[in-house]
Design brief:
- One of its GO terms (biological process) is iron ion transmembrane transport.
- One of its GO terms (molecular function) is manganese ion transmembrane transporter activity.
- Keywords: Membrane, Transmembrane, Transmembrane helix, Transport.
- It holds the Pfam family Nramp.
- InterPro entries: NRAMP_fam.
- The chain is mainly alpha-helical.
- The protein has a single domain, classed as Up-down Bundle (Amino acid/polyamine transporter I).
- Helix content is 75%, strand content 0%.
- The protein has 20 helices and no strands.
- α5 crosses α19 and α7 crosses α8.
- It is globular, with a radius of gyration of 21 Å.
- The N and C termini lie far apart (56 Å).
- The relative contact order is 0.22.
C-alpha cells in the first residue's frame, strides 16, 4: 500500500546524516528570519518587562504549536503533491481557498505595518532622527533593492549579521546580569496562568511566534528547495521544523528573560524603542541604543522583504494566480502593500512601539481560519490512505486548533467587554 501511494517503501528510506540534513533544510531557517521581526522583539520585551518570569510557560505551547503546524503542513504537501492552499482548493473548493488566502494575506499585511514601524524605530535609535523619516529612507532602499538583480542575497547576509549581533548582545546581557533567578524562572515555566491584563499580550506573543502562516508558506518554499516525498521520511522535514522552532525560541526566550531581569524589577513598561534598548545597558552602556537600533533595523528589513512576499504569495495562491516571486503581479502587489503600510503607519499618532504591538495582535485573525482547514486535511482518510495514520500529529493539530481559537476569542471578547 505504501509503495502504491508513494512510489517507494518509506521503511527503506535511509535517515540522512547530520551533514546531509544541513544541506536539505532551509525553509525553516528562512521563516525564522521572517518571524523574528520587530514584532517578535517588541512583544517579547513587553512580556518580560510587564510580567517578569510569569509568562515563560508560553514557550511550551509555542513549541508544540510551532512544530505541529510545520510538520502537519509539510506532511500534507508531500502526500498530496500540493502546497497547502492549493490542497485546500482541491479538496474544499475555490471559495475556501480564497477565504484562507485572503485571511492569511491580511495577517501578513499587519506584520508589514509592524515591520515599517520597526525600521523607523531602528533608525531613530541609531541616528536620533524622526522614526517616520527613518522609515521612509529604509522603504526607498527596500524598493531599490527589490527591483535590483543579484542583490537580495547580499542584503540578507548583512541583515543576518545584525540579527546575530542582537543574539550575542542579549545572551551577553544574560551572563553579565548573573542569569535568571532559578526559582522564579522554573516557576514561570511550570505555573500556567494569565496575570491580570496579560491576555492580549499573550495573544500577540503566540500569534507572532507560532503562526500557521509559517507552515503554510513553508510548503511553497519547499517547492523552491525541490523537496521530494522521500524528505518526509529521511528526517529532512522534521529537522527543518525543529530548526525553525528552536531558533525562534532561543532568540525570543533570551529577550523575555533579559526583560524580566533588567526592566521588570525597575517597573519599566515598554512604550518606546529607547526602553527596549535599556535592556542592553548592563553590558553595552552608551552603545545600547545603536545596537538595539541595528537589531530592530535588521529584523525589520529582513522581515519586510520576506513577509511581504509571503502575504502576496498566499493571497495569489488563494485566488489561483501566479505565485512566482519573479512575476510582475507578485512584485507590484508587494509594492502596493508597502506603500499602503506607510500610509497606515504615518497616520497613526502613537508610538511606533505600540503600533508594532497592535499590528502583531491583529495577525491572530489568520491563525484559527487556516488551522481549521489544515486540521481537516490532516484527518482526511484519502490523504492518509495506505499510510499509518499519524494519530499523535492529528490529535496535536486538533488541540492546537482548539487552543488557538479559544485564546483568540477569549482575549478579543475580554477586550471588547472592557
Amino acid at each position: 500500500m505504501y509503495i502504491d501511494k508513494l512510489g517507494f517503501d518509506p521503511d527503506t528510506v535511509p535517515t540522512l546524516s547530520f551533514g546531509e540534513l544541513l544541506k536539505r533544510i532551509g525553509p525553516g531557517i528562512i521563516l525564522t528570519g521572517v518571524v523574528i521581526g520587530p514584532g517578535a522583539i517588541t512583544t517579547a520585551s513587553m512580556l518580560g518587562a510587564n510580567y517578569g518570569y510569569q509568562m515563560l510557560w508560553l514557550f511550551i505551547p509555542i513549541f508544540i504549536m510551532g512544530i505541529t503546524f510545520m510538520l502537519s503542513c509539510y506532511r500534507i504537501c508531500m502526500l498530496t503533491g500540493m502546497p497547502i492552499i492549493h490542497a485546500i482548493r482541491h479538496y474544499y473548493g475555490k471559495g475556501a481557498a480564497a477565504f484562507v488566502g485572503i485571511c492569511l494575506f491580511f495577517s501578513c499585511l499587519f506584520f508589514t505595518f509592524g515591520n515599517i514601524s520597526g525600521s523607523g524605530a531602528g533608525m531613530n535609535l541609531i541616528f536620533g532622527i524622526n522614526w517616520k523619516v527613518g522609515a521612509l529612507i529604509m522603504i526607498a532602499i527596500l524598493l531599490l533593492m527589490y527591483f535590483s538583480k543579484n542583490t537580495y542575497s547580499k542584503v540578507e547576509k548583512g541583515v543576518l549579521l545584525c540579527i546575530m549581533g542582537m543574539i550575542i548582545a542579549f545572551y551577553a546581557t544574560l551572563i553579565a546580569s548573573g542569569g535568571p533567578a532559578a526559582g522564579p524562572f522554573f516557576t514561570g515555566i511550570t505555573h500556567w496562568q494569565f496575570p491580570q491584563g496579560s491576555l492580549l499580550h499573550s495573544l500577540a506573543f503566540i500569534s507572532t511566534h507560532a503562526a500557521i502562516t509559517a507552515g503554510v508558506y513553508g510548503t511553497y518554499l519547499g517547492a523552491e528547495k525541490k523537496w521530494k516525498k522521500e524528505d518526509l521520511f529521511n528526517g529532512t522535514m522534521f529537522a527543518d521544523g525543529i530548526a525553525h522552532v528552536i531558533t525562534v525560541i532561543l532568540i525570543s526566550g533570551a529577550i523575555v528573560t533579559v526583560g524580566a531581569i533588567v526592566l521588570h524589577p525597575a517597573g519599566l513598561k515598554i512604550k518606546a524603542p529607547a526602553q527596549m534598548a535599556a535592556m542592553l545597558k548592563p553590558v553595552l552602556g552608551t552603545f545600547a541604543n545603536p545596537v538595539m537600533g541595528l537589531a530592530l533595523l535588521g529584523a525589520a528589513f529582513s522581515s519586510l522583504l520576506g513577509n511581504t512576499q509571503r502575504g502576496v504569495v498566499l493571497l495569489n495562491a488563494g485566488m489561483d494566480w501566479s505565485v512566482g516571486l519573479e512575476s510582475k503581479r507578485v512584485r507590484w502587489t508587494c509594492v502596493a502593500c508597502i506603500l499602503f503600510g506607510v500610509i497606515v503607519c504615518f497616520a497613526y499618532s502613537g508610538s511606533p512601539t505600540q503600533l508594532i504591538f497592535l499590528a502583531n495582535l491583529a495577525t491572530s485573525i489568520g491563525t484559527p481560519t487556516a488551522v481549521f482547514f489544515v486540521t481537516l486535511l490532516m484527518w482526511r482518510k484519502d490523504i492518509n490512505a495506505g499510510m499509518r495514520a499519524p494519530r499523535l500529529l492529528q490529535v496535536s493539530m486538533t488541540v492546537c486548533y482548539i487552543f488557538a481559537t479559544a485564546i483568540t476569542i477569549f482575549a478579543l471578547a475580554n477586550k471588547l467587554l472592557k
